[in-house]
Amino acid sequence: MPQLLAMLFDVDGTLADTEKAHLEAFNRAFAGAGLDWHWSVPLYQDLLAVTGGKERIHHYIDSYHPEFTLPENRDGFIARLHAEKTRLYVDALDRGALPLRPGVARLLREAREAGIRLAIATTTTPANVTALLHNTLGEEALDWFEVVGAGDVVPRKKPAPDIYDYVLRNMALAPEQCVALEDSQGGLQAARAAGLTTIVAVNAFTRDQDFGQAALVVDQLGEPDRPFTVIQGDVGDKSYVDVGLVRSVHARSL
User: Fold this and answer.
1) In terms of residue numbers, what domain contains 83?
2) Taking 90 as the threshold, does the pLDDT of residue 1 lie above it?
3) Can you tell me whether residue 198 is helix, strand or coil?
4) Whether 223 and 241 share a structural domain
5) One domain, residues 175 and 224
6) Comparing C-alpha atoms, which of 9, 227, 239 is closest to residue 116?
7) In a domain, 149, yes or no
8) 116: exposed, middle or buried (Cβ count in 10 Å: 0-12, 13-18, 19+)
9) For the residues of 34-53, what is the DSSP string, one character each?
10) Which residues are catalytic?
11) How many CB atoms lie within 10 A of CB 95?
12) Helix axes 162-171, 185-193, angle to 10 degrees
């Protein structure tokens, strides 16, 4: 039976509840560009079905403002708008706006102590990953991750499996040797399409999505003094996600 050798983490919504900060940055970027667009929370929940910030803006224009006349080259306009959104988001992180979700820092440290390899598999831009890790775990935290698969390093974003395939290839690992940690249906679909056992910790934006393919679904990773709520799956006598539980989930899925 293959041993658990690596844990592959999504970022937005998984490591931290970032989506509200992303939403605020999108709206500030729109206002700064003189656009009368404003994404409400319910609208943003729908738009999250489209992964990738630039892709989300493309989809929004096509679906909600098909009559909108772009002032210049479409791709260039959206790229610049998204770059400003990223700057605003990173600035919010630099001001300490976002803590990690419960259990994330503990689980990362436990995995490192156990010799389990770590990687990032996300559709967000590399600058967002760096800012989040530096401002929550310290300047050295990026080095904890053997591979950081982010942004446009693959042609197709989640729910396509490309980012997970990229990470597995660069780590020279088989999917049977890894567990993915996600928060969304699209992320789960990407991980499962890559052949990965997947643990999902839902958040306010994703809790009503379909996670039938997940090996375990909880409301958070939890802490010894802050237990999780199990939504789907068997955790035995565990009250929070630790390396032992990840290994157990992995072994049962093979």
Assistant:
1) 19-94
2) no
3) strand
4) yes
5) yes
6) 9
7) yes
8) buried
9) T------HHHHHHHTTS-SH
10) 10, 12
11) 9
12) 50
